[in-house]
Amino acid sequence: MTTGTVAPLRSSLTPERESFWHLVHAEWTKFRTVRGWVIAVLITIVAITVFVFLASGGGSRCTAGNGASGACPAQPTGPGGVPVQDVFYFAHQPVTGNGTITVQVTSLTGQTLTGATQMAPGGLQPWSKAGIIIKENTSQGSAYAAMMVTGSNGVRMQWDYVNDTPGLTGSVSASSPRWLRLVRDGGTITGYDSADGTHWTLGGTATLPGLTSTVQAGLFAAGSSDSFDIMATGVFRHIGLSWPATGWTGTNVGGYANAAGTPLPGTLRQSAGTITVASFGDISPATGSGQSLQRALIGTFFGLIPLIVVAAMFITAEYRRGLIRVSLTAAPRRGRLLAAKAVVIGAVGFVAGLVAATLAIAVGKPLLLRAGPLAWPVSLLTEARMVVGTGALLAVAAVLALAIGTIVRRSALAVAIVIVVIFVPYLLAFGPLAGHGPAGGGGWELRITPAAALSVQQAVPQFYQLIANYPLNSGYYPLAPWAGLAVECAWAAAALALAYYLLRRRDA
Amino acid sequence: MSLTARAAFPPHPVVQALHAEWTKFRTVAGPAWLLAGVVTLTIAVAVAAASAAQCQSATCGIDPAAVSFTGIYPAQAAVAVAGVLAIGNEYSTGIIKLSLTAMPRRLTWFFAKATVLTAPVLAASALAVAGAALAGRLILPGHGFTLAHGYASLTSATDLRAAVGAVLYLTLIALLSFGLAAAVRDPAAAIGLVLGVLYLFSPGTWTRSARCPPA
Q1: Residue B186 resides in a domain
Q2: Would you say residue B168 lies in a domain?
Q3: Residues B159, B153: Cα–Cα separation, whole Å
Q4: A420 near B CB under 8 A
Q5: Which of residues 288-317 of A touch B (CB under 8 A)?
Q6: Domain tally for chain B?
Q7: DSSP SS3 for A432
Q8: Mean pLDDT per segment of 10 residues, for chain A of length 508 residues?
Q9: CA of A409: which chain B residue's CA is closest?
Q10: Does the CB of B136 have a partner CB in chain A at under 8 Å?
Q11: Domain that holds residue B72
């Protein structure tokens, strides 16, 4: 009997068969050969697509602040079809071709409507505004660019309702006036601001496509959009027009009336070297009237459930059948096995979500439009984000289910946990506490739980320069689209890390 | 009692079935943990919801019972898991063959199992709902749910009905899950179905209002 050195055990597999992608391929083969799982993923796709038919119901009904429900009233729209508020007093004169308008603003004050027509001083809002504006014409929703002083947001340049850039900070007064300038060059309008009238800084550059040669240039004031009872008064001096002056014409763009219907026009007062403009209203985007395109994706809830079941079973079935021991013998590096499973189930979820959301929006958008207007025109880019985001939402939910399945090793418990952490926060946001919290509904539940990812489907924009109520049941989420998805990713990553730790530590 | 005496007077088959199922139920850790989870979730969420609720005026329109029983939303999932696993585990482990060999009368076995599930779930639900109601009773008056705001008492007949209803609701969810799991014979698919029915058809999932411009 001879003793010699024993060669250590080495894997007999060739290096390429040991590669990670080989493992992914093995897991993919496991997935696609279980008929029930493939059927469940097909159900996911079909459910998301089919339930758009539920979405179109009630599309044209509006719920007003007082709870009354009725057809959505028409709203003025601006360039690009965006719903706008365009109500202000405009002291204007027609100007043709290129030129410049410059002005010094010495004061911006507020007044509040207290009775039918009585006014009390005070009440200036953060976005009360007065300044200079170049606007295509005096009809609501026409293209414009403006430089303005605001209640507490400093000097701003705004154009075409949705665009806003900041300028000088601080509030305006006689001792610290603000100089504003707009320069028109064809379809481009550039804004400048200055504290002394000699040193100018660029405020912003607006491109207004198709701007007519003759436009209206002048002064404006607008009180507030969130409370139409606020009147803002701007005092202007040193008005300089490079175009030939033809005298100011005052126009109430849009027109504003009190609750009884009595018109409350803005005012224009001219005295030696000073013009004072006072008005209610606002020039801003509106929150829109109608249904959010997100409704077309309401089937996501139905689609999530079969996907979560399959994703959890992708690992728990291995434990139930004892197959996990074979799998781990074949792939002894346990982290790689978990990663391969995550890649496969994540890819399946992503593709299912992508296909389903594409179909749902293709079918749902015409359905919603037939029932009534959309709250906000949805650009192709936003639609792409909603579709890719739904794919990502499903992919991350599937990975979360896989990780929880690895942690608890029981399919029913894993499925229940994942469904609860995604659905219950969403339901609680609408539930008995909705609308009564300080955040006005949809607060923390949709910020810190995996349900936050639903914000990736938001189809209606929020504007910081429009202080309004952005309720959850009209499709506004507390987090920005990708931020919400990031919250879900963080949960999935944490669950995967724990799953990896436990998978390495425990007996299979 | 000696073995001969036992053999001479065997207990009624239903009693035997109940006893056997009860032994199964109490000797696995899962159900006890799940029912403890039901009680904890219901009460913890009730405390959180009651602490968050504020009623500033007589027209705040919040139902105090709905606030106290917010925890039912997550707790029903734990009840559903308990219901599904009560029969689903028999199928997933294959012990069902042994059970049915020992108790060939399948309906007796089935109803014994359902009974053994119902009693502890009923007890746990009652404990959970009582705890949640007590939490609401202690916390809510400090948050504006007072006589001045139209909340005469938090132990009125309506609130009592809500509490009894919540207990029955949780118990019936367990039985629904039990029945569905028996029908589909797979715990994961059964829990997906049950929670789908519970959450997808909750008020709130579908109500989306189109938005009106401010008047």
Answers
A1: yes
A2: yes
A3: 9
A4: yes
A5: 288-292, 295, 298, 301-302, 305-306, 308-309, 312-313, 316
A6: 1
A7: coil
A8: 64 67 92 94 92 64 50 74 88 93 93 81 88 92 93 92 90 90 93 92 91 93 81 92 89 78 82 89 82 86 94 92 88 90 96 95 87 81 94 96 94 93 84 48 76 89 78 80 94 96 89
A9: B188
A10: no
A11: 29-51+63-202
